[in-house]
Amino acid sequence: MSRSGTSPLRSRITRRSVVIALSFTVLFLFGISRLLPAQLVPEIGRLIASATPIYLLLALAASAATYPLRGLRWRRVLRAAGLVISRRAATEILALSFWVNVLLPAKLGDVYRAWLLKRNGATSFGGAMGSVVAERLVDLATVALLGGASALVAFNGRLSTTVSLLVSIALLVAAGTLALLLLSRGLGAKIVKRLPLPARVREPLLRAVTALQAGTGGSMVAQITPYSLGVWALESLRLGLVAAALGLFAVSPEVGMVGISAVVFTALVSAVLTVVPATPAGIGIVEIGTFGILFGIFGMAPEQAAALALLDRVVGVGSLLLGGAVLFAWSPYRRGVGRLR
Questions:
Q1: Angle formed by the axes of helices 108-119 and 125-154, to 10°?
Q2: Rounded Cα gap, residues 34 and 179, in angstroms
Q3: Per-residue b/e over 208-247, b at no fewer than 16 CB within 10 Å?
Q4: Bridge partners for 249 per DSSP
Q5: Which of 93, 135, 99 is nearest to 107 (CA)?
Q6: Could you tell me which of 229, 228, 192 has the C-alpha nearest to residue 212?
Q7: Burial class (CB within 10 angstroms; exposed 0-12, middle 13-18, buried 19+) of 149
Q8: How far is residue 30's CA from residue 22's CA, in Å, rounded to a whole number?
Q9: What are residue 258's DSSP bridge partners?
Q10: Chain-centroid distance, C-alpha 14
Q11: Rg of the chain in Å (alpha carbons)
Q12: Does the pLDDT of residue 190 top 50, yes or no?
């Protein structure tokens, strides 16, 4: 806890920039709702209401299963930085941070994750933040590369102009992320040491850079890649199960339906869109992107594409919003009395 008795998260929530970002989110979503043709709304509602419950329950299970895997991946990064915590601590703290990211823009949940580690007696805030950044950057590079590769499979190497643009964006994101990792590993500490900063600022930054370097080494990336593959396989499975619940999935897809390769491509490209920090959890941006891919690239009817995009987000983000609220009320970690080992 800070000297003023408030958390870094709380101080950031009250900033004018966050209030403006949340106001933008509300206006953005209102604008989207106004653009949606009125005649499609009843049909979209009918499709969602007709969803098969068992498939939705399986989709919820697939979505929930990603958090233990994410927690184990982050735990590996923390261990490389010299901090050993339990599986429960890693999973619970990570899930709380994801919940905050649903509520607030600018990825403030990542700051909250590092603060929770510090509050519960772990390393410095700088070291904790470095581990969070390392895990996030490696995951982003992985999903961007997987998104580009999935396009080649989904379209048998015959990419349209739109798909080529999406693949180019994904590869640029991957290249930018890898360049940032290399820069932080090679020059990060040197730059921090040479900056005219007071010791109380320089030391946390050095710890952050050290943790970032430890979490992004070649051997560490190799160790956590299987976890990343598992996470994004489950994310793709969730979208596929939601499509199946709506009767829009087929192993050999027909017109207006999606298959395995289309589901994987859509899930991965949509995940890249969550990087845009303009709205909490990319709300509005991801739905538009998913709808655009399903409607514009895979030829689904607009009401089908909208129903699938919306219901998938309800399963993924809506369940996190409710489950995270329960976890926040119950978890000892947000009160600073959790056991890290």
A1: 140
A2: 40
A3: bbbbbbbbbeeebbeebeebbebbbbbbbbbbbbbbbbbe
A4: 258
A5: 99
A6: 192
A7: middle
A8: 13
A9: 249
A10: 24
A11: 21
A12: yes
**115, 127 in Cβ contact below 8 A?**
no
DSSP per-residue letters across 70-100: HHHHHHHHHHHTT----HHHHHHHHHHHHHH
Model pLDDT for residues 264-288, shown as the tens digit of each residue: 999 998 888 887 777 787 888 888 8
pLDDT band at 140, cuts 50/70/90?
A: confident
| pTM as predicted | 0.85
93 touches 116 (CB < 8 A): yes
Residues with Cβ < 8 Å from 205, sequence gap 6 or more?
126, 192, 197
Structure tokens at 139: 């995951």
pLDDT in tens, 206-242: 677 777 777 777 778 888 989 999 999 999 999 999 9
Which residue from 96, 148, 98 is spatially nearest to 272, judged by alpha carbons?
148
Residue 179 has pLDDT above 90, yes or no: no
Burial (0-12, 13-18, 19+ Cβ within 10 Å), 249: buried
SS3 161: helix
> How far, in whole angstroms, is CA 36 from its chain's centroid?
26
Could you give the CA distance from residue 164 to residue 176 in angstroms, rounded to a whole number?
Answer: 18
d(CA 227, CA 18): 32
d(CA 138, CA 5): 33
* CB 89 within 8 Å of CB 340: yes
Per-residue DSSP letters for 230-292?
HHHHHHHHHHHHHHHHTT-B-SS--TT-B-HHHHHHHHHHHHHHTT-TTSGGGTTHHHHHHHH
